[in-house]
Automatic annotation (TrEMBL):
InterPro entries, sorted: Haem_peroxidase_animal, Haem_peroxidase_sf, Haem_peroxidase_sf_animal
Coiled-coil residue spans: none
Keyword Cell division (UniProt): no
Gene3D superfamilies: Haem peroxidase domain superfamily, animal type
GO MF, any single term: peroxidase activity
Key words, A-Z: Oxidoreductase, Peroxidase
Protein name: Uncharacterized protein
Pfam annotation, one family: An_peroxidase
GO biological process: response to oxidative stress
Amino acid sequence: MFPAWGQLVDHDLTLTAETKDPETRKELDCCEGGTSRHPNCYPLKVPYEDPFYKDKKQTCLNLARSLAGVRPGCSLELHLISCSDHGDGERT
């Protein structure tokens, strides 16, 4: 039973709808763009002293939130999952 549950959770996470660049329709690059980044971009700054990334000379990790599905008249954003709408095991 645990492998089946793990597979369900895995598919809910990996099939999450990604935010795409509106112009190129490709994956967002949140480390580029300065202050004109997409609102779903949350780039992670890598400290210079980081033991893992120090030799790779990487100063930023690309992080974009999943695509938001905003309902009319609602100020809260729900994030879309293209496999199922929530991870409560509804498919089981």
